[in-house]
Hints:
The protein is α+β, with helices and mostly antiparallel strands. It has three domains: 12-94 and 288-309, Nonspecific Lipid-transfer Protein, Chain A (2-Layer Sandwich); 122-268, Nonspecific Lipid-transfer Protein, Chain A (2-Layer Sandwich); 323-544, no CATH class.
Amino acid sequence: MNIEESLSELPENKLKKIMLKKILEQEVDTSDEEYQKRFEETYKVNLDIDGLKGYQIFEQTKYTYKYGEHLEDPDVTITFRDMEYVRGLLQGEIVFRMGHWGRIEWGGDNKKRNVWHMNRKDNFIFTRTRTNERNAQVLLAKIPFFDPIVRNFGTSRQGRPLRKEARPIGPVEKGEIESLMKKMLSESVDVNDELYQKNLKDQILKVNWDIDGNKSYQIFEETSYNYEFGKYIEDADLTLVIKNPDYAKRFLLEVSINYAPILDDDNNLIICIKTPVVRLQFKKPDEHRWAIVKLPFVRTMMKNAALKQDAEKEEIKKRKGKREDYGYYIPVNLPMGEVENVVVPYKVFEHFINKASNIILRTCPCRERGDCKNHSKKYGCIYMGADTKNLALAPDHGYVATKDQALEHVRNAIADGLVPLLGRGVDEAEDGQGVMDTGKFLSCCFCCECCCAIVKLRQYDMIPGGRGFMEGTKIKVDLEKCVGCETCIETCPFNLRKVVDGKSFVDPNRCLGCGRCITVCPNGAISVDIEDPDYIEKFIAKVESLVDVTEQTN
């Protein structure tokens, strides 16, 4: 499309038209097998680009659209709320990533609605620490004024519901930030508070502030507190900088906002504000947010985002050195060699838990966000290793656990029918938790077929390949025993199994090896060949070559 003005200069009314045209008129191949599979049932979509309307109807062999109107009974209504976000999408400066979700459960009419919001992250507080330990999260958790923010940490990808729209606060007046800062400095600390004294026991914490150019410092001790406005202290443990006066005003007024931690290029913690930019409202109360991955324009944008993200990761590798991700779903139905009564996942988890210097158990953010009805929300992630000591979580979302507590967590999760996943995921630590991964952060998840993001992306064919089954094992179907009953197809959470020529089939390079199909097959036709009897020991050795969970000498 020829546009006289550049996208950066286009007025919003033209941006709306370009975005709507880009979505509605995108080429759709209705003869494509995958398209026909995704739309076996008709799917209706209303689009609202900041007031500009249109709709799409996807049928198995047909695609129709119309400008200027909405359907009465759409399966989903997608509303783009922020035109600067749209501008960034069109320019390619902002990528369409689905990882930053929030949910508002109740509408203005006090009725529960299946409404989701996708967010952008705006930089809010820049932190700098005096040491190289990068423990800014832990230091922030000791500052009383940060309690509501810390309660949002650990939830940047799949965490808590979004706060409802914050009350209007009006523009920032001259001298208002200075006045609010002085109020915060003088009123935010109670040295007689039991938690304050516990957090500062045998410690002095020195903090510098720079909010919209206004400087101050605070000195926190177990039974005392001092501050001064207008000055920095030379040997501060932590320096906090807020450049945006509007965000600063909301923060100082303690107006509820959606916070999340990330790391900058120098591995310093940045606290972001999650701002809703795309709103999704589904007709079905149990519709999963990932359902929109079926839509062609979303798939195209996500694939473009993935390409850009891969390029960004390559730049990070050049700057920080290669940090390899590695992990597998661990099959739940395989015995440990000669030890028939010990399932594989428990043996693997037991190995690392017994060696771990620090263990954090947390609730499952995916099941919390999806309000899972099939599995317990309390059997969530396990994080291990010294890097996890730099992670702050709200008490109702996670805690430092003993080895016995962690092992019980594993046993209960497996008994609940969840599929274990263990390995090193640098993005999980840094993008998800805002903690620098120095090779001492082991991530462990327990996934369900209804809420897990990886499962849903597999179901909608947005992860075309993968590591496949755990190395040293191989999926096998006995063609004589298989009768093509499709029980395994119904059970496969990744939507990968199918019947070919009357027999069960799955591409071994795509199967993730959860093991569910093995026990549900009524004829015992599916099994796993253990090609390498040392496969568990080799898996553990590979993980240990990338992640050290033991206590560090420093």
